[in-house]
Amino acid sequence: MLDDEDQRLFFMREALVLAREAGSLDEVPVGAVVVCEGKIVGRGFNQPILSHDPTAHAEVMALRDAARNLANYRLPGCELYVTLEPCMMCSGAIMHARIGRVIFGARDAKTGVAGSVLDLYAESRLNHHAAVEGGVLAEECGSLLSSFFAAKRQRSLLA
Length: 159
Description:
The protein has helices at 4-24, 48-51, 58-70, 88-97, 138-158; strands at residues 31-36, 39-45, 79-84, 101-106, 131-133. The chain contains 5 helices and 5 strands; from the N terminus they run αββααβαββα. Helices cover 43% and strands 18% of the residues. It has a 5-stranded mixed β-sheet.
């Protein structure tokens, strides 16, 4: 049995595998896994471009997969591991799914709503509150994003 720290690292590394898959498809490299009772029950990576779906963020895809696998649209007691701080849309989906804890890697200074731009998870008027932990493998998660965007800028300069 893994201790809590080893578990956080293990599941974030699984989310990073999915993020790399998104990047290989020229999608923003963000990956997510939903964990229930120590097992991955949902996986997702960013794919709004490929799927022509603005809601196809990694978190939403992982929530959909977990809901299908558990045959329930509510996911109480589950945890979501994601390589980037969730945006407003994903945070709404996380709250509606009743996820118990969100663990993310890199902060998102432009759209993150788990403390960077604002903190929806601390909003007392909302009816569900997930525990949030940021910064797990933050450097590796952030580096993957930075490298992706640097390569995109380089390609556009060469075009």
